[in-house]
Structure formats: C-alpha cells, structure tokens
Design goal:
The structure is a single chain. This protein has a five-stranded parallel β-sheet with strand order 2-3-1-4-5, with helices on both faces. It has six helices and five strands, in the order βαβαβαβααβα. The longest helix is centred in the middle third of the chain and has 20 residues. The two termini are 14 Å apart. It is an alpha/beta fold and 164 residues long.
C-alpha cells in the first residue's frame, strides 16, 4: 500500500531538510516541495495565483500517486490552516493509500534563531521572521501529528515520521 505524507510547518522549521532525508530513508520515495510549484518573481498572492498553485500541487501529487514506481509520496508546504490540507486532500486520489498528516513545530526561540541565521545568509527576506512566528501557534489546532524539531537532529525527526 502506498503512503502519502503531507508535512506542514512554519518557514524555518526544517520541512525541506527533513523531507529530503526522509526521501533517502524510505525506499521508492518521491518528494515534492509546494514552494517549487509557486516560485515566481514577483511573488504574487491573489485568488488566481492561489488557485494555480493548488492545481499545480494536486496535479503533481496525483501523478506521483498513480505512478507504480513510487511507494511513498512526500509533500511539504507551509499548510498553516486545516482548509489548505482539506483542499489538497479533496483533489487527490488516495484510494489504496494511507495518508499521514504531520505538522513540524519548534519553540519560538529556536525558530527565531534559525530564521535569523537564514536572513543573515541572504536565504530569506526579513519579513519571513514575523510571518513564520505569527503562524507557529496555528499548527496546534490542525488535524495532524505534531512533531517538535526543537533541539533534535534531522535523523531523529525522520525516524519519528517514518514510524507513523
């Protein structure tokens, strides 16, 4: 039976890093980062672009789910509202597939340190800090397994997710 992991969390919590390693740990895996489906300059958020990115994500995930070469499909994106998760799942053919929703979290100090370091390296814009910290409390109310990354290695987080 196929597995689909939907892994959310605020910017800077380690979603992409964890998912890249999880892809290596789970044989027959494919990984999609939702950010790859909406990498534009300028980055515009409006009804048209939000509909487009959702369509892009669901199209790719359905293709991965239908492809017999893959046993595990791993997807990550911010997904800070239950409605985002529900909208994605409503458009996927998950028959014959177990779906595991995970929210990566961290304490505020750790998230602040990670984002500040990324901003200093030029990897993120300064506004990412406020947006990420503002969304952090929203993950507590989601219908997802919460995995705290604070002070933990990527390997330890991957092991926990792989065992779900």
């Amino acid at each position: 039976m196929k597995q689909l992991f939907l892994i959310g969390g605020p910017m800077g919590v380690g979603k992409t890093t964890v998912c890249q390693q999880l892809k290596q740990k789970l044989p027959g895996s494919v990984f999609l980062d939702g950010d790859w489906c909406w990498d534009a300059n300028p980055f515009l958020v409006n009804e048209e672009t939000k509909a487009m990115v959702l369509d892009n994500i669901c199209h790719l995930l359905n293709n991965f789910l239908r492809c017999t070469a893959y046993k595990t499909v791993i997807f990550c994106w911010v997904m800070h509202e239950q409605s985002i998760i529900d909208a994605i799942l409503s458009r996927l053919d998950t028959g014959g597939c177990t779906v595991k929703c995970v929210s990566l979290t961290a304490d505020e100090a750790s998230l602040r340190d990670r984002l500040t370091a990324d901003i200093a390296k030029g990897l993120r814009t300064p506004d990412a800090l406020g947006r990420s910290l503002g969304r952090l409390p929203l993950y507590g109310s989601l219908s997802a397994v919460k995995v705290d990354t604070t002070g933990r290695s990527v390997e330890a987080v991957c092991r926990e997710i792989a065992c779900l």
